Amino acid sequence: MTTFDTDMPPMTTSIGRSTADDIWVQGYDLAGELMGEVDFGSVFYLLITGRLPTAGEARIFNAVLVALADHGLTPTALAARLTYTGAPDAIQGAIAAGVLGAGSVFLGVFEDAGRVLTAAGPTPDTGEEELERMAAEIIEDHRGRGARIPGLGHPFHKDGDPRTARLLALAREHDLLGPHTRLMLRVQERATSPSGRQLALNAGGACGALLSDLAIDTAVLRGVAVVSRAAGVVGHLAEEARAPMGRTLWHMAERAATYEARR
Fold first, then answer.
1. Alpha helix stretches (DSSP H) within the chain
2. Tell me, what DSSP letter sits at residue 74?
3. Closest to 211 in 3D by CA, of 185, 178, 165, 187
4. pTM as predicted
5. Facing residues of 25 across strands?
6. DSSP assignment, residue 198?
């Protein structure tokens, strides 16, 4: 017989439950109130925050999901395609392979930027001078440690990430340009690369700031990015099934790599 430590807190959940006749998600009747009435992004927001978003919040949150869905033949997509080449009977493994690389270089910028901004402590009442001071401290801290500021710079969009411009426009349209995003913009305005070039705010940094303003916990910011990119990975795998390139990539690597014996 299993025994439990009486000092342990009781286990509770508000996410979902099922009865013989109903399925409930965060207090909503899944079939009667959500299906066909609420888009997937809004249900995802509900699962994370415990409430449905306003119309403006839903538009921003869905735009964030769309922004990170795909970015071409990235390492994420290549990892998924190559895994599918070896195990086409287990597409879930290929999807997992595609998103397991979420980290400081790919997809993890959501979380990294959000943590830096949240640690600075901006609130809706934070004034412009205080935001300037916070921005300067963030830049000096990273410069002193020789660390890159998450959310700034992009290997392709050197002169500005088109997704960032659209996200900021939507935030302004719905009056949702909150303190974290305003702080991120001040950091971007002040920060420069080692060569003195001003760094563009990339989509990951913009998304991390906007989601922080939507009260998304920093602990799950990377999870939002993973859900977004998983959709793109499935798209790549659908294409891989009908127009494979995995074996070509494999043979290209074999031909391009030089073997060097080491003893």
1. 40-49, 55-67, 75-86, 91-99, 109-120, 128-145, 162-173, 179-190, 203-213, 221-242, 246-256
2. -
3. 178
4. 0.90
5. 16, 28
6. B
CB 178 within 8 A of CB 172: no
Structure tokens at 262: 């080491």
- The whole-angstrom separation of Cα 169 and Cα 12 is 40
- Which residues make Cβ contacts (< 8 Å) with residue 65, sequence separation at least 6? 41, 44, 224, 227, 228, 231
Task: Kindly report, residue by residue over 115-151, the tens digit of the pLDDT.
Answer: 999 999 999 999 999 999 999 999 999 999 999 899 8
Percentage with pLDDT > 90 across the chain? 79
Mean pLDDT of 219-245: 96
Of all residues in the chain, the percent with pLDDT exceeding 70 is: 94
pLDDT tens per residue, range 162-183: 999 999 999 999 999 999 999 9
Rounded to 5 degrees, what angle do the CA atoms 15, 19, 20 make? 155
The Cα 103–Cα 150 span in angstroms is 11
pLDDT at 103: 80
Measure the CA–CA gap between 61 and 40, rounded to whole angstroms: 10
Report the C-alpha gap between 142 and 90 in whole angstroms.
42
Which whole-number Å values give the CA distances from 98 to 88, 226, 237, 250, in the listed order? 14, 9, 10, 16
Return the closest-CA partner of residue 82 out of 66, 67, 95, 69: 95
What is the spatial distance between Cα 223 and Cα 108, in angstroms, rounded to a whole number? 9
Using CA atoms, how far apart are residues 257 and 83, in angstroms rounded to an integer? Answer: 20
118 and 124 Cβ atoms separated by less than 8 Å: no
